[in-house]
C-alpha cells in the first residue's frame, strides 16, 4: 500500500476516522476531508501521525456544490499532478424523521449530503483516480432492511447501492473496483443520542451474532480488505459489515 493516496470524505470522526488511521498505518497517504469540526479533524490527523502515517486535512461543507468544488481545488494543490488510488465516499448525515414529520428542507439535506455529494465527488474524482484504483461507497444495512422510522435516510443508502453497481460496470474497463460497504449499528456520534441509553445499546448489540454493536474499527478492517490486493476481483458488491445484525431476534 506504500505510495498509494486515498481521499476519504467525512474523515474527522467515526467510521471515516478509523478508515483513515487503518489506511495510514499501512503506508497510504490519507487526504482527510471534513465539514466543520476542526478539533476532531486535528485529533484524527494526530492519530494518523501516531501510527507512523502521513496525511493532510481538507475542510469543505457538502451542503452546496461550492463545497465539492472547493474540495477539489484544495485536492489539486496537494496532488501537484499526482493521482489518487482510493476514494472512500463516507461523509453522511442521519435525520431520524419519518414520513409524517419530515420537512422538505430535512429531506433535501438528507439527499444532498448522502446522495448528491458522493455522486458529484465521484464525478470530479474520476479524472484524478488512477486506473486499477478503488472506490468504496458507505451504504447502510438499512438500505436493504429499511425501517419506517429511518424514512429518507434508508432511501439515500438504497440510492448509493444502485450507484455502486452502475459505476462498477462503467469503470470495469479501467480496472477500478467499486463496492458498497454497509455497516450495521456502529458506536459513533451518529448514534450518540440513542446509545447514551445503555439499555438501547445493549438491546441493539444483542441483535448481532457477537452480542455487541459495531465499532468504527470493525468497518475500517473491511475497507482495508477491499483496498488491498485481496480485493482486486471484488466489484459491484454490497457487503454488509454488521456482525450479523438481525440474525438474532
Ligand atoms: N454509525 C452507524 O451506525 C452507521 C451505520 C450505517 C452506515 N453509516 C454511514 O457511515 C458513514 C459515516 O458515519 P459515522 O457514523 O462515522 O458518522 P459521524 O461520526 O457522524 O461522522 C460524520 C462525518 O461526516 C462529515 N459530515 C457531516 N456533515 C457534512 C457535510 N455537510 N459536508 C461534508 N461532510 C459532512 C463529518 O464532518 P465534521 O466532523 O466536520 O462534522 C464527519 O466527518 C455515513 O455515511 C453513515 O451514513 C453509519
Keywords for this structure?
43% helix; 8 helices; 249 residues; binds NADP nicotinamide-adenine-dinucleotide phosphate; Rossmann fold; seven-stranded parallel β-sheet; 7 strands; alpha/beta
How does the overall form come out from the CA principal axes?
A: globular
- Beta-strand portion reads 15-25%
Rounded average pLDDT: 97
Number of helical elements: 8
Distance between the termini: 40 Å
- Specify the structural class: alpha/beta
Number of domain units: 1
Binned, the helix content reads 40-55%
Radius of gyration: 17 Å
Could you tell me the number of beta strands? Answer: 7
Low-confidence stretches: none
Can you describe this structure in just a few lines?
By secondary structure, this protein is an alpha/beta fold. It is 43% helix and 17% strand. Bound molecules: NADP nicotinamide-adenine-dinucleotide phosphate (NAP).
